[in-house]
Amino acid sequence: MDARTYIEEHRGEFVAALKEWLAIPSVSADPDRHGDVRRSAEWLAAHLKGTGFPSVEVWETGGLPAVYAEWPAADPGAPTVLVYGHHDVQPADPAEEWETDPFTPVERGERLIGRGASDDKGQVLFHALGVRAGLAASGADAPPVTLKLLVEGEEESGSPHFADLLRSRRDRLGCDVVVVSDTTMWAADTPSMCVGMRGLTHCQIDLYGPERDLHSGTFGGAVPNPAAAMADLLSGLHDADGRIAVPGFYDDVVEIGEEERALIARLPFDEEEWLATASSGAASGEAGYSILERIWVRPTAEINGMWSGHTGAGGKTIVPKSAHAKLSFRLVPNQEPLRIQEHVRAYVASAVPAGIRAEVAFGGPGVRPCASDLSSEAVRAARAAMSRAFGTEVLYTREGGSGPEADLADILGAPLVFVAVGLDDDRIHAPNEKVEVPLLLKGAESAAYLWEGLAQRG
Amino acid sequence: MDARTYIEEHRGEFVAALKEWLAIPSVSADPDRHGDVRRSAEWLAAHLKGTGFPSVEVWETGGLPAVYAEWPAADPGAPTVLVYGHHDVQPADPAEEWETDPFTPVERGERLIGRGASDDKGQVLFHALGVRAGLAASGADAPPVTLKLLVEGEEESGSPHFADLLRSRRDRLGCDVVVVSDTTMWAADTPSMCVGMRGLTHCQIDLYGPERDLHSGTFGGAVPNPAAAMADLLSGLHDADGRIAVPGFYDDVVEIGEEERALIARLPFDEEEWLATASSGAASGEAGYSILERIWVRPTAEINGMWSGHTGAGGKTIVPKSAHAKLSFRLVPNQEPLRIQEHVRAYVASAVPAGIRAEVAFGGPGVRPCASDLSSEAVRAARAAMSRAFGTEVLYTREGGSGPEADLADILGAPLVFVAVGLDDDRIHAPNEKVEVPLLLKGAESAAYLWEGLAQRG
Ligand SMILES: [Zn+2]
Ligand SMILES: [Zn+2]
C-alpha cells in the first residue's frame, strides 16, 4: 500500500485522535491551565507509544514538560532526524469572538476548528501518521531514518526553558538535521517551504534632561528638550532610503541569494490584498526590496512605543524632564543580537546632545535569526518530498518573526529544514483557529517521503 | 516734601494695608475662593477711594470682578495713563511647603512673605502710594496725568473674560499709554524694565497609521510606523542650527535691535547659576543668540508631550496604530498666532508620509506676543523715572511668557510700558512667595516720577 493510500484510509482515525488532543486546553501562558499542559504531554506520549515509537518520555523542564520520542532506523548508518513542534497553545481570548467552543473541536467540511488545530498540535500529529504511512509503504518495521520527536510545552510563552533543555539533553538529541513543523505555507494551492526566520532584540531607551519639568516660557528655547532629543534619535534610526542608519547594523547581514529571490518573486503576491490585511494605507520600507523581502529577509528598527511629558487633556507648556521609547529590531542571518545591542548602544550614545543623559536597557539576550542552507541536501530532500506530496513545485517563503528555532540549530549543531502545512489564514493566536485537514494529510505524506529521501541521500 | 520722603514716612501704613489685603485669599482658580476674590475687589476699591481716586468702580465680567479707578488730571490736555495689574493670586499649594501661613502675611526684616505679596498685590498697591507721593511733592490736588487703574481678578486663571471686558469698556479705558505692573526686574541691585513678552500657541498632533496595532514580525519593515513618522515630523521642526524649520515661521519676526541687544548683553548673567536654576546639564538653542536672547526675543517650537503604542512594562513587538504629540510655540513680535497655526498645519501636512493620516488641533486662538517701542517717549520716560528712583542706570529685559498684555495694547490701541519691581526669586506661583518692601517703595517712587515725566513730555 502506498503512503498516500494509507493516509487516506486512516484519515478518520487521525482526525478523531487530533480532536481528542485539541480538547485538552494546554494554555502555557495561563497558570490555571498548567495541569492541562501536563495532561497534553501525557496524551501525546501515549499516542506516540501507540504509534509504535519504542521509546517515549515526558521530560521535565524548569517549567512545563516536553515530550520526547525516538524510533531508531534499522540501519545504524542511517541519518538521524529531529522533528520539533509544541503541544502548548495560545490562550483563547477574547472568548466572545469564538463561534464555537475553542476546546471543543468541530469539523466543518474539510476544516477542523479549535485552538491548536494548526498551531501546533495538528502539525505535530501528522508526523505520527506520516511515520506509519512510510512503514506501510515500505513494509519495514522501522523508519528509514532514526526519528526523534521533541515537542515542547512552553513555546507560546517564549520557550523560557527550552535552550536549557536542549543543552542538558544534548547527548540524546544528536541529529543530522532538524525538521521544524510550526510554520505556514503560502497558500493551499501554492505549497511552499519556510527557509528562514528573523531574530529579535528589543530595548527601552530613557533620555533624561532637566531634573524637573520646566516652564517653557521661562526656559523654552535655551535648554535641551529630552522629547526633541528622542525625536532626533528615533528619526535618525533610518535614512531617506529606509535603511537603518545605526553604524555597523548591516555588517553581518547576508544578502538574499538569487535563487531565493527569484522563487519569492514567483509567489502570487497581491499588494492590495496585503495592504487590506495590514489595514495600512500604504506600504513603505527599505528601497530596493519588495514587500515580502522587507518583511522576510531584511532587518528592521521599529518603534513599538514612546512617551514623554504631558499626555493628558489640554495643553501644558513644559519642557519635559524625560522621554522614553521602546524599540525592537528584527534581525536576519547572520546578525547577532548581542552585537546589534552594542551597535544600538553606541548609536544612542552618539545621538544624545549635551545636557541629556541616556539609558538603554535590552530585554534579555534576544532571539537569533535562522535560515536553511538552500544548497543543502536536507532542503533539497524536503522540497522534493513536499513536491511529490502536493504534486506541484514548492516555492520558498520566510517568516518575519521566530521562536526557539535558532537555538535548535545552534545548540544541536544541525541544519534546519521547515516542513509545515499551516496557512496564514488559519487564525493562529486569534479566535476561531482552524486547520485544513487535507493539508495535514499532505504534511504526513511529505514526512513519509522525506524520511525515505533523506535515507537515500544520506 | 519730596516724593521719596513722603514714601519713607508712609512705609508703615503702606505695609499694614498690604498685609490686610494679602490676608484675603483671592485664588481665582479655586471656586471655593471666589467669594474671597470678590472681597479682594471690594477691599481694593475701598482702598483706592481712601487714596483719593474720585471715581472707583467694581466691574463685573463673565467671571470674577475687576476694579477700575480713575483720577483725572487738572489739565484736560494732560496725557492719560492706564495702569494694569491683578488682584487675584495663585493657589497656595503645596500647602505643606509653606513655612508660614500663605494668607497670614509675615514681615521678616525687609521682606514681606505671603501669597500675592509680589504677584501682584504689592505691585498694584505701590501705585496708590505713588500717586499720593506725587501729590505731596507737587502740592497739587490731582495727578499730572489722568490716571486710570484697571485691576483684574482672573489673571491667574488665564484672563478668560479680560479681552471682552476691554472691548465692552473701551470708551472708559481710552489712554495714551498702558503701564503694566506685573513683571520682574533683573535683580535688586540691577533695576531693569521688561520691554517685551513672548506669545504662545499650542496644539496636539495626531498621526494615524494602520487601523490596529500590527505584529512587527508579520508587518514590520513594510508599513509606515506612525511613531516613526512622528519622530521624523518632530525632528524636522528644527534644523541643525536650532532654527525652526517650519516654512514661513520667521516671516514676521522682528529682529532684536542693536540698542536692546547691547543692554541685554550688559546684564550680569551667570550661565552656571542659570543652568543650576534650570536644573539642566547644558544650554542649547538657536545658533547666533545668547541664552537670554533665546528665551526672550526668539520664538520656539517645544515638544510638551508625546505618546504612542506600548508604554507599559516589558516589550511589545508592535507597529503602533497611532502617535500623538503636544507642541507649544512661543512667539515674538510680530508673529501672529493664527498665521503660525497655518504654517504649522502646512508643515504637518507636508511631513507625513503615504499611509499616515494627520490631525492638528490648536488650543484656541493663542496669545499674541507684545513689546514696547524702545524709541517711544513712554519707554524713555519710564526708564528715566526708574533710574531716578533707583539712582542707577536701568537695563532692559523681556519675559519668555505672557498673560493678557497684548490684548491691552491691541484693544486699547496704546503702547505698553512695563514698570514693575518683582524679582525672579520672589517665588511667585510657588510656596513662600515674598516681596522686598524697599523695592515696592522704589516702585511707588518710580510711578510718581513717571506721571510727572509723562506730563512734561506729553
Ligand atoms: Zn506554533
Ligand atoms: Zn501676575
From TrEMBL, chains A, B:
It comes from Nocardiopsis endophytica. Transmembrane segments: none annotated. Gene3D superfamilies: 3.30.70.360, Zn peptidases. It holds the Pfam family Peptidase_M20. InterPro entries: Cyt/Met_Dipeptidase, Peptidase_M20, Peptidase_M20_dimer. The keyword Methyltransferase does not apply. The lineage of its organism: Bacteria, Bacillati, Actinomycetota, Actinomycetes, Streptosporangiales. Keywords: Dipeptidase, Hydrolase, Metal-binding, Protease. Residues 196-353 form the Peptidase M20 dimerisation domain. The keyword Protease applies. SUPFAM superfamilies: Zn-dependent exopeptidases (SSF53187). Its EC number is 3.4.13.-. This is Dipeptidase. One of its GO terms (molecular function) is dipeptidase activity.
